[in-house]
Write a structure and sequence with these properties.
Blueprint lengths: L1 H37 L3 H17 L5 H24 L3 H18 L2 H24 L3 H14 L4 H13 L3 H37 L3 H14 L3 H13 L3 H14 L6 H14 L3 H10 L7 H11 L2
Length: about 300
């Protein structure tokens, strides 16, 4: 029995000696990690704290304090490395690294990293989408903004820019839906401006292509979202080409209300005067001819028609 006790005592002594040696080594590695962290070498610091953690865990109670310290540092360093990736424009890598840092933070109970990541990730995704839009990668921007609004449908800025990206790829249906969502969430003025501009461009292109029905519809839609002399002018011109005089007159009359001093205004007044004259509305024809009487371009014509209508 005495011999057995001596063997046990010798074994315990060796174990304690080994544990002390391991802790000394773990402490040295830990301190090197701390110096690397102080020097701004996050990757080296992370590797050393992870190594120190493994060694300290093997030391049991003696290594408990070091274990806790390593677990506090490791997710924070991982998060710092992820932010550097984002700063360098590597969004995909940065987001993946943040995901890993958050997982480790949850495992180790480091709530500050989880909270900071929850605040930072939406900003990163928005920056990524904005970069794609600015780089004219419109298809990529559509997908990036779709991800953002899927996670937060109330993000009006993302909805607005999603509309821009959709419009650039020619998907006007989804562009309109995105703009309207932006309007509902606080970006009404900006969204309606974008909608007005988008449909105005469509109206102009359709008019040039002699697609007069499309030109009229898009011009009216543009004006509904953002009142515009140009939209009403395109609507009037398209209606004329379609032989729809009543619609043309309505559009041109609204044009004069919205843009009475536009350089095309007297041309429109002359058109309205002729239309009213043809329709037998002498009073309206006289009203418009009198309005263009002082314009040298129309003076003689206006005088002649006023004289004829006044008989």
């Amino acid at each position: 029995m005495k011999k057995i006790l001596l063997v046990i005592a010798a074994t315990l002594a060796a174990t304690f000696a080994l544990s002390a040696q391991d802790m000394a080594q773990a402490t040295e590695i830990y301190n090197n990690g701390a110096m690397a962290l102080q020097a701004g070498n996050d990757a080296d610091a992370l590797a050393k704290f992870e190594e120190a953690l493994t060694m300290a865990e093997a030391c049991g109670e003696e290594g408990a304090e070091m274990v806790n310290n390593c677990k506090e540092y490791i997710p924070k360093i991982m998060f710092s490395i992820a932010k550097d990736s984002v700063k360098n424009g590597n969004y995909a890598k940065g987001l993946s690294e943040i995901e890993a840092a958050v997982a480790k933070a949850k495992e180790y109970g480091v709530d500050s990293v989880v909270e900071d990541a929850a605040e930072l990730v939406p900003q990163i995704k928005m920056n990524q989408a904005n970069d794609l839009l600015n780089a004219k990668d419109y298809a990529g921007a559509v997908e990036a903004y779709k991800t953002i609004v899927a996670e937060n449908p109330a993000n009006a800025t993302a909805q607005l820019r999603l509309g821009m990206a959709y419009s650039k790829v020619g998907d006007l249906v989804n562009a309109e839906a995105a703009y309207l969502a932006a309007a509902e969430n606080g970006q009404e003025k900006a969204a309606k401006k974008q909608l007005g501009t988008m449909f105005l461009k469509e109206a102009q292109a359709a008019l040039k292509a002699q697609k007069y029905a499309d030109a009229y519809d898009n011009a009216i839609k543009s004006n509904d979202y953002q009142e515009s002399g140009n939209a009403l002018y395109f609507a009037g011109m398209a209606a004329q080409k379609l032989g729809q005089d009543a619609k043309a007159t309505e559009a041109f009359e609204k044009f004069l209300v919205v843009a009475p001093n536009d350089k095309k205004a007297d041309d429109i007044r002359c058109t309205l005067a002729v239309s009213a004259q043809k329709a037998g509305n002498k009073a309206k024809a006289l009203e418009y001819y009198n309005q263009i009487l002082s314009n040298p371009k129309y003076t003689e014509v206006a005088k002649a028609q006023i004289a004829a209508l006044s008989k």
